[in-house]
Specification:
Blueprint lengths: L2 H18 L1 H8 L9 H5 L4 H5 L21 E6 L2 E6 L1 H24 L9 H5 L17 H11 L7 H4 L19 H4 L5 H13 L6 H20 L18 H20 L13 H4 L8 H6 L20 H5 L2 E3 L2 E4 L2 E2 L20
Antiparallel strand pairs: 1-2, 3-4, 4-5
Helix pairs in contact: 10-11, 11-12
Length: 361
């Protein structure tokens, strides 16, 4: 990349991050917190300043970049009388190769595992089961304490994410049908898990500058969408903050949560390294730009319903003689007669006889 190109990319990235983190920085300066929009900065140790730093990513050479020559994991070399900079992949692999291989194995096995969308966010309900202490005491419970406990008693909890189960209350932990462990994460994680999808942001920024900032921001935006879906299905009432409830004891809401989780999983695949969205492609909602197409994953992430499938025009083929003999038409695969749908057509009328014998040869 020439100096003009990479400087423009750096400024665009900084403007984008400033826009995404403006609310968090405003609340943080005043000692305020938002249960949805500030979660990524409290759960993950990535501050807005570090997210604002631009990285070109591996196998990209920046021409005329002397100010970037002192950055960690970068190497410099002369090109046409100027200083060129790129990520030193070999040095990065020597220092963090084991960690890189472990995370790669975790992500590969998670992507290969069958996706399960029947969680319906019961883990958030299990975190307040039979407990007077809550992570968000300022938010009311949708069903109250007694109603929340009754929902958890009637639910089948199957949480495969270790970091979510460790926040379960002692009374709710035995109700989980799975016993996840940190050492078994690569064999227990599955790609339908919302928390596993959020962790894509963790793995992306952890391996910067090997991973470019465009993909890191895409994972950040996707994690924010997942957090919004996660809290909408939780037992907390966030309607005052502009988040309508869904799922968690509501059959219709559970269906909506399942469909949106399916859309998140599709967007997760498209936001993976080497895909179209990861390099500024089709799922523009993941990369922060407004979607222009009608992709089902993009529509679900944007909160829009999937487009209705156009109905097929019924096949109207009139068989010769049927209307004359039966007074009916055959439409598609079913007989639709004048006497009603599915009725038996009348017997054919025999031809009239003139009373004179037909001549024979």
């Amino acid at each position: 990349m020439t100096r003009a190109d990479w400087r423009a990319a750096e400024r665009a990235h900084q403007d984008r991050v400033d826009e995404l983190t403006a609310g968090h920085r405003y609340r943080s300066a005043r000692g305020q917190a938002h249960p949805v929009e500030d979660f990524l900065f409290s759960y993950y140790p990535q501050r807005p300043g570090r997210l604002r730093r631009w990285h070109s990513g591996a196998r990209v050479t920046l021409l005329d970049a002397p100010e970037r020559s002192g950055l960690p994991w970068h190497e410099t070399f002369p090109v046409h009388g100027t200083i060129a900079v790129r990520v030193d992949i070999a040095a990065f692999e020597r220092a963090r190769g084991s960690r890189l291989a472990a995370v790669r194995q975790l992500l590969a096995r998670t992507a290969a595992a069958p996706a399960r969308f029947g969680c319906f966010d019961w883990h958030e309900w299990a975190m307040v089961f039979r407990s007077s202490e809550r992570r968000h005491p300022e938010l009311p419970l949708r069903l109250g304490a007694a109603g929340t406990d009754e929902v958890v008693r009637s639910a089948q909890i199957r949480c495969t994410h270790f970091d979510a189960v460790r926040f379960f209350t002692p009374a709710a932990r035995p109700r989980n049908t799975v016993n996840p462990a940190a050492a078994l994460a690569d064999r227990q994680e599955q790609r339908g898990c919302l928390h596993a999808t959020m962790d894509l942001y963790r793995w992306a920024y952890e391996f910067a500058p090997l991973v470019g900032s465009e993909l890191i921001v895409a994972c950040f935006v996707l994690a924010g969408e997942v957090r919004s879906l996660d809290m909408r299905a939780s037992p907390y009432d966030l309607s005052s903050l502009g988040y309508p409830p869904g799922g968690g004891g509501d059959r219709c809401g559970a269906g909506r949560i399942r469909r949106r989780a399916t859309g998140v999983q599709r967007a997760r695949r498209r936001a993976a390294p080497g895909s179209a969205a990861g390099t500024g492609g089709s799922v523009r909602r993941v990369t922060g730009r407004e979607p222009t197409g009608g992709s089902p994953a993009a529509r679900l992430l944007d909160g829009r319903p999937p487009p209705e499938r156009a109905r097929r025009r019924p096949h109207r083929r009139l068989l010769r003689g049927d209307r004359r003999r039966h007074g009916a038409r055959i439409t598609g695969r079913n007989h639709r007669c004048r006497s009603g749908y599915g009725s038996t057509p009348p017997a054919p009328t025999p031809p009239r006889s003139s009373g004179r014998p037909r001549p024979t040869r």
